[in-house]
Amino acid sequence: MGVILSGLYLLHRHPLFRSRDWSADVQHSSLGSEKAAVFTKLAGSHLLFLELPKSYKGRYKWFVIDWKRKIVASRGSIPTTPYLYFPHDMSLGINLDFPKIEDTWKVAWADYGVTFTNGDLTITVSRSDPGDRR
To answer: What whole-number distance in Å separates Cα of residue 37 and Cα of residue 48?
Structure first.
């Protein structure tokens, strides 16, 4: 019974794991360049979660990339209690292409990654092994 309940709990609160296949570089006009932490859900999800380095956390802290729908969204936070997770029924965040977001973002999709920028902040996400296409 405990195994079934644990399985149901994990189905709702998908744990996030640090990705070995993806990397993200963050460049700021005045803070320089640094790596961001990239997370994915278990079982090779089409979603990537980027946590900006602490030195960059101002207005933006997290970004979510949906490869199936070609969406990059900004999130204020990701739940961390009792572990880093993303509930299946939670929205991705505010789409960077949505006209009501405070900044103007440009999103450029490539075969093996995506780059998005607002002028001050440029984030490039790329796949370590380009043989695995999304």
So the answer is: 10
